[in-house]
Give the backbone structure.
Amino acid sequence: MLRSVEELSGYTLQAKDGEIGEVDQFYFDDKSWTIRYLVVKTGNWLLGRKVLISPIALDQPDWETRRFPVQLTQKQVENSPDIVTDLPVSRQHEYELHQYYDWPTYWSHPGDFSFRHARLYTATSMEARESETTQPVTTETTEQDEYDPHLRSTKEVTGYHIKATDGEIGHVEDFIVDDQTWKIRYMVVNTRNWLSDNKKVLIAPQWIEKVSWIDRGVHVKFTQEAVKNSPEFIPSTPLDRDYEERLYDHYDMPKYWHKEGTMGITYLSQELNGKLIINITNGEIIAKVIDVLIDPDTHRVAALVTSKGSLLKRKTEALPGDAVQVWGQDVILVAGADLISTPDDLSNSETWLSVSDQLKGHEVVSTDGTRLGELNDVVIDAEGRVISYALGRVFAEEHLAGLDQITVEATQSIGQDILIVDLARIE
């Protein structure tokens, strides 16, 4: 669901054993326009200290009581690295924070953090983290700490002027975020100083030509007239898909939900590992996913490698990807118990690629022979389609424009050893 940053500000963060504080603002990454941290005011509890909490630590929110449950204890937060929350935040300090909480580092861990990532935290690992963090952590920093200029504050960017191709049109009043992926979907633009009817409109980050952080200006690729005539945004009215359809059709822009899959939900293949496959007709557990096989020709999940049974009697089999009824956030649903067979029994299986055994570590090379990086994982949508190939190591950042994923559209070919990328197709 889409929610406004203004609405989410003031939410209480609820630890396992008490309150942590209230959300003051959000820090987002201006490369991907994704929320990376909630800035939380702890109030009198920690003498007014502010702490950074990654969305990956959030459990399912309680929207009625305006609370974000977090998979942390007060003691963990109290003993967390005492970093300065004012921007710019040192990348070294970010690393210390992620290391302390055992959070994946977003700058090297591709994909979007969302509530579903919190489910990857098992009770065992959480207990281990709690036992390891009973004492304050001391860390060393150097004068060579890198500061990440790509973290921006929603509070600071609010008020930036919106500039159309032929003049100013309004200012940033709020942000609309996807509460599943924590992506900023829109900026809310107030046009009261430029239009007589005090109209509010939405501008998506992908429609931005450039942002002048020094001059506090956001340049968009549309004319004043186009923005003026766009569908009006009324904050008191729920922002639904019908409105988004009209908005994107007005600007004749590609729709993000078509690119990202059903409801914008995507998975890293490693998130599928360990999921149970359940027969929807009788509720029985059929098997558990242990790997994903990709068809390089269709860029789809060809099959899920599964296992079932005790350690001594475990069987390794495969479920065809097209047999999946629902790619759920917690389980995978199929209709029937006789859908699983041995991988060799499936047609064309000799051309399929295992993510864990073959694709992970694959070298990525451009069509002009430049080594771009190495594959780390595959991003899959809620219909089993491969959306992009996620990078682990990046060798040529200047060619990738800060991207950590290679879209399917930019893929020239993928084989047993190499992924070939057409740089001209990289967005």
